[in-house]
Design goal:
single chain, HIT family, subunit A, binds guanosine-5'-monophosphate, 2 helices, about 120 residues, globular, alpha+beta, binds zinc ion, adenosine 5'-monophosphoramidase activity, HIT domain-containing protein
Length: about 120
């Protein structure tokens, strides 16, 4: 599918480079960057280079690229830590106001979890 784009969308502007972001990784179909208001150090957003508000609005080719990209970032975080059990993290993906979605462009949160005692990621 041809990439849908919304000129008023903040994440479309980030993909275009019109709004600066801390880029983590980019592929043909996806763009990953640090969340501007992280709930944990390393809080990353992975988004499709396609403007769709909710998961079910995405063409499969964009959806299919999201998990491998997320996996690659989680792996990189995993090798960067020195805790005994490797990294812990949550993947969160909100759809609609009632589900706490604020930005209407599909995004997957990758949120590292730290050990409360050691502070390790
Ligand atoms: P939602 O609640 O829609 O799932 O999450 C939207 C996320 O986008 C929030 O965690 C928020 O901090 C992040 N965010 C909103 N605007 C920007 C921005 O301009 N730049 C970056 N890097 N993150 C943003
Ligand atoms: Zn968009």
């Amino acid at each position: 599918a041809a990439a849908a784009h919304d000129a008023t969308c903040i994440f479309c502007k980030i993909i275009k480079g019109d709004i600066p972001s801390m880029k983590i990784l980019e592929t043909k179909h996806s763009y990953a960057f640090l969340d501007i208001q992280p709930t944990a150090e390393g809080h990353t957003l992975v988004i499709p280079k396609y403007h769709g508000a909710k998961l079910h609005n995405l063409p499969d080719e964009y959806l299919a690229d999201i998990l491998p990209v997320t996996k690659k970032i989680a792996k990189a975080l995993d090798v960067a830590i020195d805790g005994p059990d490797g990294i812990g993290y949550n993947i969160v993906q909100n759809n609609g106001r009632i589900a706490h979605q604020v930005v209407d462009h599909v995004h997957f949160h990758l949120i590292p979890k730290r050990d409360e005692k050691t502070g390790l990621i």
